[in-house]
Write a structure and sequence with these properties.
five-stranded mixed barrel
Length: 266
């Protein structure tokens, strides 16, 4: 962590107070940023490397809506072969860089029958179905407690701000529970039914490990999903990566406006 931070330190003319992780097909927010530095992941000591074609793999430093931000343009996933500790390593580094709030975006499959493709869902809770945990092993007490409380996994004030901003911008928002699975296969019909039965409104392959590590360090989190396909009975169809990217592309301008305005109001 310290070696990665020391490498990035010369780029930190200003302290980024907000960290943002951009998920599958959701990289266009970068176009709204006044970029000062764009650093390829392989250059940063100990950083994982994005292996998914839709993830650029750059750490962006600059300002968004007049606020200092550090943005991950591309993230890491368990299915790429990384451990939960490895894929959340950048969150630890962003904490050293100074972030006070973390925004996370992702593409996910909708399980709630009231959802439509390209809807935006604000996460208000999650279910962790991943087979690895980023806090497994010896706890580093300087980072956070051995047994962090997760009853406030997603910050209520940030959720309220999102709905206030959405109303002002005339953007429709859903709110629900996100389940994280390991992937890379999309779910079977029986798996969709099971995940819905245990209480999830959407399912995806990311976000929860990053959330856990941020909360371990006391960082409030806001997360948002773009519903890119439906796992609802009688609505399940074969889905390709291009289908996911197309659905994300439709929602991306709304998500970009929402996050930009939220950052402005922080």
């Amino acid at each position: 962590m310290n070696e990665a931070y020391e490498y990035l330190k010369p780029y930190l003319e200003n302290t980024p107070e907000t960290g943002i992780i951009l998920g599958t097909g959701l990289g266009a927010l970068v176009n709204e940023i006044e970029i000062r530095h764009s650093i390829e992941y392989p250059l940063i000591p100990h950083f994982p490397v994005s292996t998914v074609e839709s993830h650029k793999g750059r750490l962006i430093l600059g300002s968004l809506a007049g606020k200092e931000v550090v943005v991950m343009q591309g993230r890491f996933h368990y299915y790429e072969g990384y451990s939960a500790k490895e894929l959340t390593f950048p969150i630890r580094v962003m904490k050293l860089m100074g972030i006070k709030i973390l925004f996370i975006s992702n593409a996910s499959g909708g399980l709630n029958p009231n959802y439509e493709i390209s809807d935006l869902m604000v996460l208000d809770d999650h279910i962790n179905l991943l087979p690895d945990h980023p806090l497994r092993g010896k706890n580093e007490d300087s980072l956070g407690p051995r047994f962090p409380d997760m009853s406030d996994a997603y910050d209520e004030d940030l959720i309220k701000l999102a709905f206030k901003v959405a109303e002002k911008l005339n953007i429709k928002l859903q709110k629900g529970v996100y389940a994280a699975v390991q992937g890379p296969t999309l779910e079977t019909k029986a798996e969709y039914k099971y995940i819905r039965t245990i209480g999830a409104d959407a399912v995806g392959m990311s976000t929860v490990p990053e959330n856990i590590v941020a909360r371990h360090m006391g960082i409030p989190v806001f997360a948002i999903s773009v519903i890119t396909d439906l796992g609802v009975e009688n609505s399940i169809k074969q889905v390709s990566l291009q289908d996911v990217l197309n659905a994300a592309g439709i929602a991306e301008p709304r998500m970009t406006r929402l996050i930009k305005e939220m950052v402005k109001e922080l």
